[in-house]
Design brief:
heterodimer, A: mainly alpha, MetI-like fold, 2 domains, B: mainly alpha, 69% helix
C-alpha cells in the first residue's frame, strides 16, 4: 500500500519538509522551556536562544507559589462545569437521538447555534445577570456560565453518539416494559463511556483554556489561571522566566489530557465541526 | 405501544426542557437584551455607569451610525478592516499548511504518529498560553528576529507587534464601491460556475444580478460617501505576528480535519487512478482535492468564525491597548468594561454576531439537512 503512495526518489524531501514543520511547531516550546530555566539576570534578548548556563528551577517554584490558588480555581471550575454539562448533554442527546418530540429538529438546531455565537454579543446582559444573582466574582458564576454554554456541544456529541445505538435495542427494552429512565440507565448509559470520555475531555480543554468569561466575570480571588497568566505576562518590564514557567504550568493539564487521550481528543475536535 | 412511545416522548421533552430554557435565556434572551441595549444611550451619560439601575433612553440606530460613520469611532472601522485581512491570511495559512501536513502524513512516513502529535498539540493549548509564548518570541530585539544570527546573518529588525506600517490602504468612503465590485464579481463567478454545470436559467439569473450590482457600484455608490472627510484604512503589518501565532495554533486542527477526509478515501480509488496512469500530482489535483472540497468548506467556516471572534490571542500577545493589533472583539471588551460605554459595546457585539451568523446559519442548515438525508 505504502509503495503505491511514495516514490523512493522523493521520500527524503518529504522528511525534510516534515522536520522543518516539526521544528516550527516545537520552536516555541524550546523557547518557553529554556527561558523558564534561566536565571532572570541571564535572560537577554540577543542570547534568547542559548541554553541556560546554570539550570535555575526556582522559576517553577515561584510560578507554582503564585499560581497555586488560580490553578485550584481553574480545577474546581473545569471539573464541575465539565461534569454537569456532560451529564445534561448525555440526557439531551438521548432524547434527541431516541425520543425526538415533535419539533425536536428545529429545537436542536436552535440549541446548536449557541455554540457558535461570539460571546461578546451576550456579554453585557450576562454580566448583569451574574451580578444580579450574586455570583459575580465567584467561581460558581463561571461554573453556571460554562455549563450553559457547554450544552450545545455536549448535546451534539451525545446525540451523534447515541444515534449509533441500534433502535432495536431500545425497542426490545421497551417491549420488556422498561420506561424512559430505565432504558437510559440499563441500556444507554452503560454504553456511554467512550462518549463521556470524548465530551469530558473536550469540555475540560475548552473550559480550562477559556479567557473571555474568565476575565469578565471573576475577581482576583476567583481568577482562573488564564487570566492570571495574561496579567503576569502583560505587565510592563516583565521578567520573562516567570511568565514562561507559568505558561508551562497552565498548559500542562490540557497537554497531559492530549497526550494520554489523544484519540478521543481528535474525535471531539471532529465533532466540533458539526458533522453528523 | 404507540401510547408508550408518546409518554416517552413527553418525558423526553420534560428532560430537555431545562436545557431549552437555559439556552433560550442565555443565548436568545441575552441576544435580545443586548440588541435592545445597543439601541439606547446607556453609557453616554457618565451617571449611568455608576447607577445600579441606570435610566436609559431609546436612541434608535445612532450607535451603529456612529460606529460606521461617526467622527470618533475610526478605531472601530480600522478594527473591521483588520479583522477582514486577518481572516483572509489566517484562513489561507491554516488551509494551505494544514493540507500540506495532512498530505505528508497521509504518505505514512516513519514516525507518523509522532509527527501528527507534534503538529496537533498547539490546539490543546489556551490562546493565552500561545499568546504569552509568542509575545516573547516576537520581541523586536530577540526571539524570531535573532534566528538569522544562528546561521551567521545579521538579526532582523522587524517590529512584530508594534509596527506602524500599513499597506493596501484605501479610503473608507470608497467602501460602498469596493463592496459593490466584490459582490458583482462573486455573483459573476457563481454565474460562470452555473453555466459550466449546464444550469442555464440559474446562470442567467446570477449574470443579471451581477450586472445590476455592478451598475449600482459604478453608478450610485460613488455618490454615497459615509464620512465628510477622507479616512484611510489598510492592513497593519503588526498583524503578521498574530497571524503566524494563530496559524501555529490552528494548522494542526485543519490537518486533523483533512486527515479524517483522506483516510475516508477508498484505497481502490487511488489504485485505479494509478493504474490509469495518473502521476502523484494528477492523483491529488484531479481526484483527491475535489473530494476534499466539503472539508475545506467546513474548515473555512469553523476557522472563519474563530477568526471573527479572536480575542484572547490578541489580548495575550499585544495587550488590550495596542491600537495596531486591535480587533472588534477586543474593542467591545474595552468599550464596555473600561469605557463604560455599554450601549456602544453592545452594538459592537451585535455586529460581530451578525457577521458570524451570516456564515454559521447557512452552514448549520446545510449540515443538518444532510444529516436528515443520510
Amino acid at each position: 500500500m505504502s509503495a503505491s503512495r511514495t516514490r523512493g526518489r522523493w521520500r527524503w524531501l518529504m522528511y525534510v519538509v516534515l522536520c522543518l514543520a516539526a521544528s516550527f511547531f516545537l520552536m516555541p516550546v524550546y523557547m518557553m522551556v529554556v527561558t523558564a530555566l534561566k536565571d532572570p539576570a541571564e535572560i537577554s534578548l540577543d542570547t534568547a536562544w542559548q541554553l541556560p548556563s546554570v539550570w535555575n528551577w526556582a522559576s517553577f517554584a515561584d510560578a507554582w507559589q503564585a499560581f497555586l490558588p488560580k490553578l485550584r480555581n481553574s480545577l474546581i471550575l473545569t471539573v464541575t462545569a465539565s461534569a454537569t454539562s456532560a451529564m445534561l448533554g448525555s440526557l439531551n442527546g438521548y432524547v434527541f437521538a431516541k425520543w425526538p418530540f415533535p419539533g425536536a429538529k428545529i429545537v436542536f438546531a436552535l440549541i446548536l447555534f449557541g455554540m457558535f455565537i461570539p460571546y461578546q454579543a451576550i456579554l453585557i446582559p450576562l454580566f448583569g445577570f451574574i451580578r444580579a444573582i450574586g455570583l459575580y466574582g465567584t467561581i460558581w458564576g463561571l461554573v453556571v456560565v460554562h455549563t450553559v454554554y457547554g450544552l450545545p456541544i455536549t448535546t451534539l456529541i451525545f446525540r451523534n453518539y447515541y444515534t449509533e445505538i441500534p433502535d432495536s435495542l431500545i425497542e426490545a427494552s421497551a417491549l420488556e416494559g422498561a420506561g424512559f429512565f430505565a432504558i437510559y440507565r440499563h441500556v444507554v448509559f452503560p454504553l456511554s463511556l467512550p462518549g463521556f470520555v470524548v465530551v469530558v475531555i473536550w469540555q475540560f480543554t475548552q473550559i480550562w483554556n477559556e479567557f473571555l468569561f474568565a476575565v469578565s466575570l471573576s475577581n482576583p480571588a476567583s481568577q482562573p489561571i488564564t487570566v492570571a497568566l495574561a496579567q503576569l505576562a502583560g505587565g510592563e518590564a516583565v521578567r520573562w522566566n516567570l511568565p514562561m514557567a507559568g505558561a508551562l504550568l497552565a498548559a500542562l493539564p490540557t497537554l497531559l489530557v492530549y497526550v494520554v487521550f489523544g484519540r478521543y481528543f481528535v474525535r471531539g475536535l471532529l465533532a466540533g465541526s458539526v458533522k453528523g | 405501544m404507540r401510547w408508550r412511545k408518546h409518554t416517552n416522548q413527553i418525558t423526553g421533552f420534560l428532560v430537555v426542557l431545562p436545557s431549552i430554557v437555559l439556552v433560550a435565556v442565555f443565548v436568545y434572551g441575552f441576544i435580545g437584551r443586548a440588541l435592545w441595549a445597543s439601541l439606547t444611550d446607556w453609557g453616554k451619560d457618565p451617571s449611568q455607569a455608576l447607577a445600579l439601575n441606570p435610566v436609559t433612553r431609546f436612541i434608535g440606530l445612532q450607535n451603529y451610525r456612529e460606529l460606521f460613520t461617526g467622527f470618533i469611532d475610526g478605531r472601530f472601522r480600522q478594527d473591521m478592516v483588520s479583522t477582514v485581512f486577518f481572516t483572509v491570511f489566517f484562513l489561507a495559512g491554516c488551509l494551505l499548511f494544514g493540507l500540506l501536513l495532512a498530505i505528508l502524513i497521509d504518505h505514512k512516513p516513519r514516525g507518523e504518529a509522532l509527527f501528527r502529535g507534534v503538529f496537533l498539540f498547539p490546539f490543546a493549548l489556551s490562546f493565552v498560553v500561545t499568546g504569552t509564548i509568542w509575545r516573547w518570541l516576537l520581541q523586536p530585539g530577540g526571539g524570531v528576529n535573532q534566528l538569522p544570527t544562528l546561521v551567521g546573518l545579521r538579526p532582523a529588525t522587524f517590529e512584530w507587534l508594534t509596527s506602524r506600517q500599513q499597506v493596501w490602504r484605501f479610503d473608507w468612503n470608497d467602501l460602498p464601491v469596493i463592496i459593490g465590485l466584490l459582490a458583482a464579481a462573486t455573483l459573476a463567478a457563481v454565474a460562470v460556475v452555473a453555466r459550466r454545470a449546464g444550469r442555464r436559467r440559474r446562470a442567467i439569473g446570477f449574470a443579471l444580478g451581477s450586472a445590476a450590482v455592478l451598475g449600482l457600484a459604478v453608478g450610485v455608490a460613488p455618490g454615497w460617501r459615509p464620512l465628510p472627510f477622507p479616512e484611510l484604512h489598510g492592513f497593519n503589518l503588526a498583524f503578521i505576528g498574530i497571524v503566524v501565532a494563530a496559524v501555529w495554533q490552528m494548522a494542526g486542527y485543519t490537518m486533523a480535519l483533512y486527515l479524517a477526509g483522506l483516510t475516508g478515501i477508498p484505497e481502490e480509488l487511488r489504485e485505479a487512478a494509478v493504474v490509469e496512469g495518473a502521476n502523484e500530482w494528477q492523483l491529488y489535483t484531479r481526484i483527491i482535492l475535489p473530494l476534499m472540497a466539503p472539508i475545506t468548506l467546513s474548515a473555512m467556516i469553523v476557522l472563519g468564525h474563530i477568526s471573527l471572534k479572536i480575542f484572547d490571542l490578541v489580548f495575550a500577545m499585544a495587550g488590550p491597548d495596542n491600537a495596531w493589533t486591535d480587533v472588534p472583539a477586543l474593542l467591545m471588551f474595552i468599550t464596555t468594561f473600561r469605557g463604560n460605554q455599554f450601549a456602544k459595546g453592545a452594538a459592537i457585539g451585535v455586529i460581530l454576531l451578525v457577521l458570524v451568523a451570516m456564515i454559521i446559519v447557512p452552514y448549520l442548515r446545510s449540515q443538518l439537512r444532510k444529516g436528515v438525508r443520510e
